[in-house]
C-alpha cells in the first residue's frame, strides 16, 4: 500500500496566503509522481478558521477542492479527511463532501469527525481515526478504542491517523492532554501519524508530518509531507514553502548587510529582526519599515540577543490569530494553546509565557473586584 499523509494545511490563514498554500499542495502532492498512490490522508486542520462564504479564501478553496477531487477520482486514489482542532476546522470539510456528492464521477472520499476504525479490504488494512479534542481522558479513550477493536474483531490496527499531541512533543512541565506513546505503539502495527504540532518529528513508529507550509516565525525549518511505500516512509520537503526568516542583529550589523540578506528572499516574505535596544535599527525602525515596504518586517527588542524565540513577541503576535469564542474564563488557555500550537519554544520561554499570563489573570481579577465595589 502506497500512501501520503499530510495535515495542518490551514486554508484561510491570516498570514500565509491561501493561494500560496493551495499552490504548494498542488506542486508537492497533486503531481504526476504521486498518481500511483492508493490513499491520501489529510490528518486535520484543513482550515485555519471559520471562513465567510463571500471571502476570496472560500472561492479559492472550492476551486482547489474540485481539483483535488478530480485528481483523486481520475487516479483511483482514496481521499480520507480527519477533523482537526475545532477552532480551526469548524467541520468545514463538509464542503468537500457536498462537492463530491454532486459530481458525476465521484471520488472515494470519507470524512471522519468521530473516533472510528475503517477497514480497507483491497489492502487488508485497518485504520484508526481520532479527531482533535475527542476526549481529555486517556482511560476513556482506550475504552472507546477497545470497543471499536472488538467490533472489528481485531486486536490491533495497521495505521493510526490522529490529531493532537504525544507526550514527547510537549515540554516536561506542560500539563495538557496527550496521547500515550506506549499504548499506541502497542495497538498499531505499522505507523501512527499525528498532526497538530507544525514541526516534523519522529518517535519510534510515531510520525508527525508537521505542516505542509510555514505559517509563522518559530517554524523556519523544512516543511513537507510523508510518503509511505511498501511500509517505508520518507519525508518529502516542500521547497516552495513561504518564507519566515529571523535575523539576529549584532552591534556591527550595517544597513548594507541587511539589504544584501533581505534581497535574497521573495517579496512579501516575513522578516523578523532581533535587535538590541540601542541599535539604530531599533531606534529608527519606522524608517526601516519604509525601506522594506515589499516585506512584512517586524522586530524583537532583546538585551540578550539569541537565536530563540521571544516569548513576549510570540504572545503579542499570536493573540491576533485566535479565532475561538473568547471569554474571561478561557482567554489565557486560548492564548497558551495558540502559542504552543504555532511555535517551538524552550522551557525558559514557556515559563515566561506562563508568568505573563499569570500577571494578565491577576490584572483581570483586580479589574473584576473594582467593578464589584
Task: From the alpha carbons, calculate the radius of gyration and give it in angstroms.
Answer: 22 Å
Counting DSSP H or I runs of 4 or more residues, the number of helices is 12
CATH architecture of the largest domain: 4-Layer Sandwich
Q: Tally the beta strands.
A: 15
Q: Summarize the biggest pleated sheet.
A: 6 strands, mixed
Q: What number of domains?
A: 3
Question: Could you tell me the mean pLDDT?
Answer: 88
Q: What shape does the CA trace take? A: globular
The portion of residues forming beta strands comes to 15-25%
CATH fold-level name of the largest domain: Purple Acid Phosphatase, chain A, domain 2
Major sheet: arrangement of strands: 4-3-2-1-11-12
Binned, the helix content reads 25-40%
**Which regions have little confidence, pLDDT < 50, spanning 5+ residues?**
304-325, 368-373
What is the straight-line distance between the termini?
67 Å
The CATH superfamily title of the largest domain:
Metallo-dependent phosphatases
Q: Look at the structure and give the CATH class of the largest domain.
A: Alpha Beta
**H and E order:** EHEHEHHEEEHEHEEEEEEHEHHEHHH
The chain-level structural class is: alpha/beta
Amino acid at each position: 500500500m502506497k500512501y501520503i499523509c499530510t495535515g495542518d494545511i490551514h486554508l484561510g490563514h491570516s498570514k500565509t496566503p491561501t493561494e500560496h498554500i493551495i499552490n504548494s499542495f498542488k506542486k508537492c502532492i497533486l503531481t504526476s509522481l504521486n498518481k500511483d498512490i492508493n490513499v491520501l490522508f489529510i490528518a486535520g486542520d484543513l482550515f485555519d478558521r471559520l471562513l465567510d462564504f463571500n471571502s476570496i479564501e472560500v472561492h479559492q478553496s472550492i476551486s482547489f477542492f474540485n481539483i483535488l477531487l478530480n485528481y483523486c477520482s481520475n487516479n483511483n486514489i482514496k481521499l480520507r479527511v480527519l477533523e482537526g482542532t475545532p477552532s480551526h476546522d469548524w467541520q468545514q470539510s463538509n464542503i468537500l463532501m457536498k462537492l463530491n456528492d454532486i459530481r458525476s464521477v465521484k471520488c472515494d472520499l470519507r470524512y471522519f469527525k468521530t473516533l472510528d476504525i475503517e477497514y480497507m479490504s483491497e489492502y487488508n488494512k485497518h485504520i484508526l481515526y481520532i479527531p482533535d479534542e475527542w476526549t481529555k481522558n486517556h482511560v476513556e479513550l482506550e475504552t472507546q478504542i477497545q470497543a471499536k477493536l472488538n467490533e472489528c474483531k481485531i486486536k490491533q490496527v495497521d495505521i493510526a491517523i490522529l490529531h493532537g499531541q504525544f507526550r514527547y512533543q510537549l515540554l516536561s512541565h506542560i500539563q495538557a492532554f496527550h496521547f500515550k506513546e506506549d499504548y499506541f505503539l502497542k495497538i498499531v502495527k505499522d505507523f501512527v501519524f499525528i498532526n497538530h504540532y507544525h514541526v516534523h518529528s519522529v518517535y519510534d513508529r510515531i510520525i508527525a508530518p508537521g505542516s505542509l507550509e510555514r505559517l509563522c516565525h518559530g517554524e523556519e525549518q523544512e516543511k513537507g509531507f510523508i510518503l509511505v511505500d511498501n511500509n517505508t516512509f520518507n519525508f518529502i520537503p516542500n521547497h516552495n514553502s513561504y518564507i519566515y526568516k529571523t535575523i539576529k542583529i549584532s552591534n556591527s550589523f550595517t544597513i548594507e548587510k541587511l539589504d544584501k540578506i533581505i534581497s535574497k528572499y521573495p517579496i512579501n516574505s516575513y522578516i523578523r529582526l532581533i535587535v538590541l535596544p540601542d541599535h539604530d535599527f531599533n531606534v529608527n525602525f519606522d524608517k526601516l519599515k519604509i525601506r522594506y515596504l515589499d516585506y512584512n518586517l517586524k522586530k524583537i527588542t532583546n538585551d540578550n540577543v539569541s537565536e530563540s524565540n521571544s516569548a513576549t513577541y510570540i504572545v503579542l503576535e499570536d493573540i491576533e490569530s485566535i479565532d475561538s469564542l473568547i471569554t474571561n474564563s478561557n482567554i489565557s488557555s486560548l492564548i497558551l494553546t495558540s502559542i504552543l500550537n504555532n511555535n517551538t519554544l524552550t522551557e525558559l520561554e514557556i515559563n515566561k509565557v506562563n508568568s505573563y499570563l499569570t500577571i494578565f489573570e491577576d490584572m483581570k481579577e483586580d479589574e473584576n473586584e473594582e467593578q464589584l465595589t
